[in-house]
UniProtKB/TrEMBL annotation:
Cofactor: thiamine diphosphate
Transketolase-like pyrimidine-binding domain mapped to chain residues: 19-194
Keyword Oxidoreductase: yes
Organism: Deinococcus enclensis
Alphabetical list of Pfam families matching this protein: Transket_pyr, Transketolase_C
EC code: 1.2.4.4
Name by which UniProt lists this protein: 2-oxoisovalerate dehydrogenase E1 component beta subunit
Annotated keywords: Oxidoreductase, Thiamine pyrophosphate
Coiled coil: none
SMART domains reported for this sequence: Transket_pyr
The protein's enzyme class: oxidoreductase
Length: 339
């Protein structure tokens, strides 16, 4: 079942308030640490400072240094410690300061966390969450702006999510912490304070693997996730002024991803434009495109088109050129519509 974005998709009636995406992350951690004493949080500068983006501000004061603590500058150690903690019954949240820095912990993630359930025949699991700010838009340059989600989507045993709204950020993080699998939780840093939305006061989760239909339409399907979603919606608004009704799907979850939602939409519209900010080659959206042509080929009236980052290291100052903004998305849509 696929959620819509007209109203919160889970939980019962109750009060809500408008918060930012980064506040939603902070709240989710605090509530899960209160709910479950097994949850611990650690990483570089997450304690007294509250992280480089202040996502963990106040948590050490609330839960103490035994449950919220700083680590050395060693991503391999951070991830390795999380795997060991998870295997021994804790629910660790390991923060990697930037997604670009996950490289030193890569072997721990793909060879240990992702495979421990299978290697042990189910005797051990790794219920852990690796949180990391991802993507561009803040002029962070080569080492602070990459979108490496495809590396982890390729690894069986991992779940990979990337929210674009405060509601989803909180609900997906809670779901990740309550699951039994390792989850790579990418946080689009350019939306930390730019994305605002209503979040219920009551407890809720967002199921990992369900997309959200942000806008209904009949003429073409736009699929995105994470930091590109505001531009995808801007593009849909611009198209609507010209009489074109685009259906907008926010994947929210990359592994698993909601194939049924995308296919149902493409079967209705006959056209698909796939948007992400990772470099084009081996982009995860290539998997989405392949699935569409494999399972919905007879419904297509135009080739599936991608709008992505370029095959180059992320530039320091050319964010607006590298990132797939609304204009690039609209241009791709026009080409598909005129095919």
């Amino acid at each position: 079942m696929t959620a819509t974005s007209k109203a919160p998709a889970a939980g019962g009636a109750g009060e809500s308030r408008v918060i930012t995406l980064i506040q939603a992350v902070n709240e989710a951690i605090a509530e899960e640490m209160t709910r479950d004493s097994r949850v611990v949080l650690f990483g570089e500068d997450v304690g007294g400072r509250g992280g480089v983006f202040m996502a963990t501000a106040g948590l050490q004061a609330q839960f103490g240094k035994d449950r919220v603590f700083d680590t050395p500058l060693s991503e391999a150690s951070i991830v390795g410690a999380a795997v060991g903690m998870a295997a021994r019954g804790l629910r660790p949240i390991a923060e990697i300061q930037f997604a670009d820095y996950m490289g030193p912990g890569f072997d721990q993630i793909i060879s240990q966390a992702a495979k421990i359930r299978y290697r042990s025949g189910g005797q051990y699991t790794a219920p852990m969450v690796i949180r990391t700010p991802s993507g561009g838009g803040v002029k962070g340059g080569h080492h602070h702006s990459q979108s490496p989600e495809a590396y982890y989507a390729h690894t069986p045993g991992l779940k990979v999510v990337m929210p674009s709204t405060p509601y989803d950020a909180k609900g997906l993080l809670k779901a990740a912490l309550r699951g039994e699998d390792p989850v790579i939780y990418f946080e689009p840093k350019r939306l930390y304070r730019a994305a605002k939305g209503e979040v219920p006061d009551h407890d809720y989760t967002v199921k990992i693997g369900e997309a959200a239909v942000r806008r209904e339409g009949t003429d073409l399907t736009l699929v995105g996730y994470g930091g590109v979603m505001p531009d995808v919606l801007k593009a849909a608004d611009a198209l609507a002024k010209e009489g074109v009704q685009a259906e907008v799907i926010d994947l929210r979850s990359i592994v698993p991803w909601d194939q049924d939602c995308v296919l149902q939409s493409v079967e209705k519209t006959g056209r698909a434009v796939l948007i992400s900010e990772a470099p084009r080659t081996a982009n995860f959206m290539g998997e989405v495109a392949y699935t569409i042509q494999e399972r919905a080929f007879d419904y297509l009236t135009a080739p599936v088109t991608q709008v992505a980052g370029f095959d180059t290291p992320y530039p320091y100052v050319q964010d607006k050129v590298f990132l797939p903004g609304a204009n690039r998305i609209v241009n791709a849509c026009v080409q598909v519509l005129n095919y």
